[in-house]
Structures are given as structure tokens and as C-alpha cells.
Amino acid sequence: MLAPVGLLKACSVVSAKLNYPRLSIFLVAPSREFKSQTSVEMTRIFSKNRYLDLGSDFTIHSLHGRYRERGMDRKCLMINDATLLFASKKANTKDRLVNALAELLSESKYVYGDRVNPKLTIEARISVIMNMTLESYNKYQSTLIGSTFLERFLTLFYSMPEEELTEFARKRDERMSMKFGNILSLRNISVVKVNKNYKKVLIDYAKEFSVLSVKSFNSCNDTVNAIVKSHAILNNRDYVCDDDIEILKITEKFLSNPFAPNESKIIKFYKQGKTYTDICNLLGRDEGYKSYISRVIKKAKERGVVN
């Protein structure tokens, strides 16, 4: 379960070097299922000039201060525990952080003013990796994070099978003692070419990602391109090939929100022209389920997933 997650995080780290689009990961999983461990291992594989470890407690002012001074441009910002980060901040401080990260991801620039700093500006091309528990995601997704923030991330959900969880825990000390060194010596690639034969394939995957994640096609199209391009860079290539397409197949199973397992099914049926009654029947639900279907379709329309 964790191998694809680790690979996608590695893609996010190297994607910070891309001119555009870049890949940011919002990882959601139950508590104590090694979300942070996958990030720790990323920091041991890559040289420090590729990422900034922000930990779980920072503010706009620290981003503008010590982290900006250390150089944020073309780096991956690693946030170990977004649950702790958000829980430790007042509402307006959390909002500023969310807005800053969202604007940096979309515009590579954030401008903020208050009484202390009349005009605070951060400019950097970044990718971001954030970890959050399932419980906190359910709490924050509508009240704090919002679609405009999450649109800029590839949101991944997982829950480890019990046998794998036990095995990973058993070998944790062994994994922590492994000597990685800077084993990834990568070419300095910022532009990756996509052959015209792959462009339709990527568009089809973007449409599927849009339904599964309930995010706009344009957002998913950027994500899909960022995944294959950053995976190519991991393999020291400046062009996309079949191997890069394979990771898109692997990623699909991590896109559906376990708190709303029928969302993507409802949207698929709706796009096929099914009525609300048809969808109720196909999902084995009674007529009372139509109100939920209506809410799902409304959200899908607001996010541009369906017309």
C-alpha cells in the first residue's frame, strides 16, 4: 500500500523543478499508519537542495523569514502533520496559511499585508506534501480547506491492510537504520516533452481523475501531466514513455474519499444520463437517497466535473 504513496511523494519532490505543472500531494490516512514515515524517507533519498522540511508548526511570517532566506524557489515544502499545524493555529492564522499556500501553488506569488507587515511578499515556484489524518480531513475539508485549496493538490486516501500494517511496524527500526545517502543523482530537467500519441491518453486519465476525486478537469489535467513528467525526471528522462503512464493506473485507487464512497459512482451514472431514480436503483438505495445524490451532483457542477 505504501510503495505507490512513496513513489508519488518522490514525484512531488522532483516536480518542484518543473516549470509547470508541478505536483503537490495531500495525503490522508488513519492515525499512526506511517504517513509521516513516507515523508521522512523522502528526505533521506533526496539532497536537501530539493526540499524544505517545514515540520508541523509554521506561520506566514516564518515562511517569509527564515524559509524564504534559505531559498524556497523550485523546492518541495514538506509539512509533516497538517492536523497538528491547523489545530495549533487561530482561525485567521489558519486561513492565511491556506490562502498563502494556495496562491503560491497557483501563481507562485503571495502578497499579504497587516499592521506589522504592511506588504509581505513571497515569490517561489513550489510543490507541497502535506499529511493529515482521516478524522481531521473529515472535520476540516468543508470548514477550512475548501475546494479552492484542495484543487491544487493530488489528494490521496489510503488505509493499510492489517497484515501490511503489522509487517511494516515490525520492520520499522530496520527501515529507520537504512543508509540511503544521496542515492538519487538526477539531471537538472525543468521541461519534459509529451509525444502527441500520449496526449489523448493523458486527457482520458484527467477525465477519470476528475470523476474519482470530484475536482475540475483542468485541475486533474495539470495533475496527470505533473505525475508523468515528474516520474520521467525520476528516471532521468526529459520525455514521457509507457512506464510513466503506468503510475496513473496505480494512482486511481487512491483518489476516492472513503467518507463518500458512492460519490464517484453517482457522478459516473449521472454522466451516463441516468436519472436520480435510476441511480438509487443501481446503488440499491431507496428514494430518500435522492437528496444525497442531488448534493453530490450540485458539488460536481460547482467544481466543473459535470455540466
Characteristics:
Rossmann fold; two-stranded antiparallel ribbon; alpha/beta; 2 domains; 307 residues; five-stranded parallel sheet; single chain; globular
User: Spatial order of the strands in the main sheet?
Assistant: 2-3-6-1-7
Mean pLDDT equals 88
CATH superfamily of the largest domain: P-loop containing nucleotide triphosphate hydrolases
Strand content: 5-15%
CATH architectural group of the largest domain: 3-Layer(aba) Sandwich
Kindly give the count of domains. 2
Sketch the major β-sheet.
5 strands, parallel
In the CATH hierarchy, what is the class of the largest domain? Alpha Beta
One letter per element, helices H and strands E, the order comes to HEHEHEHHEEEHEHHHHHHHH
Structural class: alpha/beta
Describe the structure.
The chain is of the alpha/beta class and 307 residues long. The chain has two domains: 2-176, P-loop containing nucleotide triphosphate hydrolases (Rossmann fold, 3-Layer(aba) Sandwich), CATH 3.40.50.300; 196-302, no CATH class. The protein is 54% helix and 11% strand. It is built from 14 helices and seven strands. The protein has helices at 2-15, 35-45, 60-70, 82-87, 91-107, 134-150, 162-170, 172-176, 196-213, 217-234, 242-251, 263-271, 276-282, 290-302; strands spanning 25-29, 51-55, 75-79, 109-112, 120-123, 126-133, 154-157. The strands form two sheets. The chain has a five-stranded parallel beta sheet, sandwiched between helices. Strand 4 and strand 5 (120-123) form a beta hairpin. Helix 12 packs across helix 14.
What is this entry, summarized?
The chain has 307 residues and is α/β, with parallel strands linked by helices. Helices cover 54% and strands 11% of the residues.
